[in-house]
């Protein structure tokens, strides 16, 4: 990915990152009520030299915020990891716990916002404050050829990180945006949340259609 002109810092925030007061307050509250949970920024989960980067919105309370691994422990992870296993982007067995031995293959999973937001809704300021970590992650992984944005916020955060106009690349489920200047292709999907699957907004077949396109691009 062509980000040579970008300055970048660490790819992951410190576990006591103080940058978003509202999110810090929430995780401190949860540390008191659930001291056995992760309750900290969630670092990316990756293989070596990933070609696919999956970007989610933010950790779920009883998912990544609890277990410390992206999408691990909640419904969204059940569908995401099942599909990644089916398409060869992971190997092993997903048991919804970070010590299940699951390995990613050719892939990385991260979140646009690394800390749990109240009601799963980060503010614009929080998205902006956490964006440098996404930018650094992109710059540090030039092997990335395909990006899967799970939901509109992940899509827009990625475009903004690359300084691309949102209007030129509108979000739509199963959309494929070629970004030749950056050596990558952006794929969109509705977020694989329980809400979206329960309401029928996203079916397993719709999700697999996106991965069909990704595998076609990076066989
Ligand atoms: S969301 Fe990102 S920038 Fe904000 S406190 Fe968490 S790690 Fe830091």
From TrEMBL:
Uracil-DNA glycosylase-like domain location: 43-211
Pfam families (UniProt xref): UDG (PF03167)
Record InterPro entries: UDG_Type-4/5, UdgB-like, Uracil-DNA_glycosylase-like, Uracil-DNA_glycosylase-like_sf
Transmembrane regions listed in the UniProt entry: none
Record keywords, A-Z: 4Fe-4S, DNA damage, DNA repair, Hydrolase, Iron, Iron-sulfur, Metal-binding
Coiled-coil regions listed in the entry: none
Presence of the UniProt keyword Zinc-finger in the record: no
Gene3D superfamilies named in the record: Uracil-DNA glycosylase-like domain
The UniProt record lists the keyword NAD: no
PANTHER family (alphabetical): TYPE-5 URACIL-DNA GLYCOSYLASE
Similarity section: Belongs to the uracil-DNA glycosylase (UDG) superfamily. Type 5 (UDGb) family.
Protein name: Type-5 uracil-DNA glycosylase
Organism of provenance: Roseibium porphyridii
């Amino acid at each position: 990915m062509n980000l040579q002109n970008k300055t970048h810092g660490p790819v992951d925030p410190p576990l006591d990152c103080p940058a978003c007061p509202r999110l810090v307050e929430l995780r401190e509250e949860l540390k008191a009520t659930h001291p056995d949970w992760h309750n900290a920024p969630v670092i990316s989960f990756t293989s070596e030299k990933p070609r696919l980067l999956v970007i989610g919105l933010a950790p779920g309370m009883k998912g990544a915020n609890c277990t410390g691994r992206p999408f691990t422990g909640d419904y969204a992870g059940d569908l995401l990891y099942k599909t990644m296993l089916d398409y060869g982007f992971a190997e092993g067995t997903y048991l919804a716990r970070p010590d299940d031995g699951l390995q990613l293959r050719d892939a990385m999973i991260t979140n646009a916002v690394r800390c749990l937001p109240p009601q799963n809704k980060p503010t614009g300021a929080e998205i902006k404050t956490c964006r440098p970590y996404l930018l650094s992650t992109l710059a540090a992984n030039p092997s990335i050829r395909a990006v899967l944005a799970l939901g509109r916020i992940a899509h827009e955060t990625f475009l903004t990180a690359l300084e691309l106009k949102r209007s030129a690349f509108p979000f739509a489920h199963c959309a494929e945006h070629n970004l030749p200047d950056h050596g990558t292709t952006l794929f969109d999907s509705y977020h694989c949340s329980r809400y979206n699957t329960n309401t029928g907004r996203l079916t397993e077949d719709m999700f697999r259609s996106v991965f069909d396109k990704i595998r076609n691009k990076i066989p």
